[in-house]
Amino acid sequence: IRVDGLACPYCAYGIEKKLNQLDGVRFIDMDLDKGIVTVETHDVKLDDRQLEKLFKDSGFTYRSKTETEKGQ
């Protein structure tokens, strides 16, 4: 997930808490320098509108999502 404005560890922690509340989320990793959030799920697809709202409500700009199968 590409996000604009995610620059500090405290901000990342808040987003991580919100993402962990979504059904099926099992792992989250954030690269603050690149503005990339990696989310691993239990065979659940995350909804773009839901993600956009989650990030917008937290003061960040959701840019895009790329999905890959585990192991790719």
Name the descriptors.
72 residues, 4 strands, two-stranded antiparallel ribbon, alpha+beta, two-stranded antiparallel sheet, 2 helices, Alpha-Beta Plaits
Description:
With 72 residues, the protein is α+β, with helices and mostly antiparallel strands. It has a single domain (2-64), classed as Alpha-Beta Plaits (2-Layer Sandwich). Helix content is 31%, strand content 28%. It contains two helices and four strands. It has helices at residues 9-20, 48-57, and strands at 2-4, 25-31, 36-41, 61-64. The chain has a two-stranded antiparallel ribbon with strand order 1-4. A hairpin with a 4-residue loop joins β2 and β3 (36-41). The longest helix is centred in the first third of the chain and has 12 residues, at 9-20. The two termini are 16 Å apart. The model has no long low-confidence stretch (mean pLDDT 91).
In short:
This protein is α+β, with helices and mostly antiparallel strands. It has helices spanning 9-20, 48-57; strands spanning 2-4, 25-31, 36-41, 61-64. It has a single domain (2-64), classed as 2-Layer Sandwich (Alpha-Beta Plaits).
Class based on secondary structure composition and strand pairing: alpha+beta
CATH class: Alpha Beta
What is the general shape?
A: globular
As for the number of domains, it is 1
Point out poorly predicted stretches.
none
Strand content: 25-35%
* Count of individual helical segments: 2
